[in-house]
Structure formats: structure tokens, C-alpha cells
Amino acid sequence: MMQYQSTLDLWLARAVEDPDLAAELEAVRSDPDAVTDRFYRDLAFGTGGLRGVIGAGTNRMNLYTVRRATQGLADYLNASGLPKKVAIAHDSRRKGELFCREAARVLAANGITAYLYPRLEPTPALSWATRYLGCGAGICVTASHNPAKYNGYKVYGADGCQITLEVADQVLKAIEQHDYFDSIRVMDYDAGGTGLPAADVLEYRLAGGAKFMVRPSGTEPKIKVYLSAVGKSEAEADAVNERMAQAAAEMMRA
Predict the structure, then answer these.
(1) Fold of 5-193
(2) Active-site residue 144, yes or no?
């Protein structure tokens, strides 16, 4: 009998929500090496979260491995006293939108509010949203520089930075308490109530034509603020800029 046959049979029976996975499993079911590569281990979780080839199995990035990781993250948040809110973003890699949706469904089922960006966003935008919304954690579905067949699931702390080794170990311990199907809480999630508007998330257009822009630094753990003041004269524009700078400083201290 093929090694991992029982695990393969389980996934053939249960992993039916993504047709791509079912088709892949059917295609490799008679190839022992291909089956082994997909099931010989769980996809590793560390300070960078999950990262792997998109596909079927416990050693692949798919909606079931994402759900399981999110259940562990939800358990960690609910036990930690951190805010029960998580910001979620994804880049242009395959299955990114699906993985974000599935993560949100698991979080919602565990009493945690999920804030999803309604479009592609770079990782720094996720860091910003995590801090701006006062979240306990953030999730960015990305695989950085890896080849196109990869995707990943990066977890960020309340400070907008990647989680520490200590936190990663705690989340991993929570993940390991779950299987891939029966112990994961999942519910429908209303994507229209994510808390992140469909436009101008990072840019605020003010009365009179002035603009107030906020973004995280790509190299340092800080938020950068950009002001664009408008006035009928230089003096008037300077006065508007000064008021905006004071408001920005008050907001960042809040």
C-alpha cells in the first residue's frame, strides 16, 4: 500500500471546496513520489508565517493549510488579551484573494473582526493598516521574491512588524492542536463590512483641495505622513499646512 494512502484518501474525500485541489489529487494519486511530496510533512510555520508551492496537500499552500494556520492565530489572539481585530492584504499572486477570504471566514467564526483591503496592496500597506486600525495582528498573503508557483501567509504583530520567534512558537503550538478539516471554525463573512474603504485608504482628501497621506516606512518601524496644502497665497497655504501638521501629530499620539 502506498505511504500516506490514508491521508490522500481523506483529502480526496474532504478537500472538495477548491476544484483545483481535487483535480490535482486525482492526477497524482497513482504517483507515490508526488503523493509523498505533498503529504510527508505539514507546511512549516515560523517568523515568516507559511510559504510554499500552491497546491494540494499538507505541504502546500491551499485554503485548508491557510484555514488551519488562521485557526491557530485566532486561538493565540483570543488567549493573549490583544485586540480581537486582524488586518488582511494580498498581492498579485495566484489564490491570494481566496486565501484572504478564507482567513477572514475563520477569524469571524472565532469572534475576531477581519479588515480586508478591497484591492492588491504591498506589504507596507498591511503594516500600516494593522497599526492604524489598532489590530492585534495582521496577515499578508504574499511570497515575496519566490517563484510564481509559490504563495505565502505572513503574520504581523500589533506593531506592524513581522512576529517574533517567541510569538511564532506560540502560534505554531496553537496550530498543531488542529487537523485540517474537523476542528477548524469557519463561517460566512460579509466582505462589504471590512472597515477598509474601497478607495483612498492611504490618502485623505480634505475640504479645499488639501491632501493628507499616511504610509508606513518601507525600511523603518515608523509611519510617514505627507501633507499637501492648498491656499490662495503662500501664507494661506503655510497656515493650512501648519494646522494639518498639528492634527497629524495629535492623531499619531492618540
Answers:
(1) Alpha-D-Glucose-1,6-Bisphosphate; Chain A, domain 3 (3.40.120)
(2) yes
